[in-house]
Design goal:
By secondary structure, the protein is an alpha+beta fold. The chain is 30% helix and 24% strand. The longest helix is centred in the middle third of the chain and has 22 residues.
């Protein structure tokens, strides 16, 4: 049983509440998702149809750094998921909006944790989180530890190009905006590059979707020269390159 304490957010998918698990007083997040808002379904071995997010969270539950799914159940018009709610964590977006900044060393520390989580999901479970963005990366205000949330748009790894993308357009790579197709691993590397840019500069590298298509950086390529760590600058530039085939693989980051 869970006692709800406040509303954390609401969107077209449903609503997320903060709560407390009564058996042990553990803080939880309770996510209600409308059935009509589920973009993809998974059919279990028993023939039961469940949202792909529930299936994916069960697959990656052993990966350290992934916010865990404790339990779930179906209701008349949707599904309820009871998940871990880490204390003293905020989204990267909120962290930056609070006026907080990170040193290059701190940015590297945070980014290394994020890459490890994403890589382990891929290596251990064959899952690629295709909606990596500042809203889905949680940072601990005290020790800068990282957690990854929202696997609704995660997919199984494939070398084939895809023509469907349900993630956030503002974080999608140029090839998606131009040709409406992408390679999953290259997309993930691009989104990681966008997050790394946000960590370093506390802002998004692009101001409008049109800039992603035309590949105009917010401060042009001079921005990368502001980074004192050349290896970090080179990595960021390689991840945010226009051609997907020239981006590094996940195992090379």
């Amino acid at each position: 049983d869970v006692s709800l304490t406040s509303k954390l957010g609401k969107g077209g998918f449903g609503t997320v509440y903060a709560g407390v698990r009564l058996c042990d007083k553990a803080p939880v997040a309770v996510k209600f998702v409308y059935s009509k808002a589920v973009w993809k379904w998974h059919v279990t071995d028993k023939g039961e149809r469940i949202p792909i997010e529930i299936h994916t969270l069960n697959r990656v539950r052993h990966v350290r750094g992934v916010v865990r799914l404790y339990d779930w159940f179906a209701v008349s018009d949707g599904y309820i998921m009871i998940m871990e709610r880490p204390i003293n964590y905020v989204s990267l977006d909120k962290y930056c909006r609070e006026g907080r900044t990170l040193t290059e060393a701190q940015s590297i520390h945070v980014f290394q944790q994020l890459v490890k989580i994403v890589y382990e999901c891929w290596l251990q479970c064959g899952i690629l989180h295709c909606d990596i963005k500042d809203d889905n990366v949680l940072i601990n205000r005290e020790d800068l530890s990282v957690r990854l949330i929202d696997f609704d748009f995660a997919i199984e790894h494939s070398q084939r190009p895809r023509k469907t993308h349900a993630g956030t357009p503002f974080f999608a790579p140029p090839e998606w905006h131009i040709r409406k197709r992408y390679y999953p691993e290259s997309l993930v590397v691009w989104t990681l590059g966008v997050v790394l840019f946000r960590l370093i500069f506390s802002q998004h590298p692009f101001r409008h979707l049109s800039e992603i298509k035309t590949f105009v950086h917010v401060k042009t390529l001079e921005t990368f020269r502001e980074i004192s760590n050349k290896a970090l600058s080179d990595l960021l530039a390689s991840m945010l390159t226009r051609l997907p085939q020239t981006r590094p693989g996940l195992d090379a980051i």
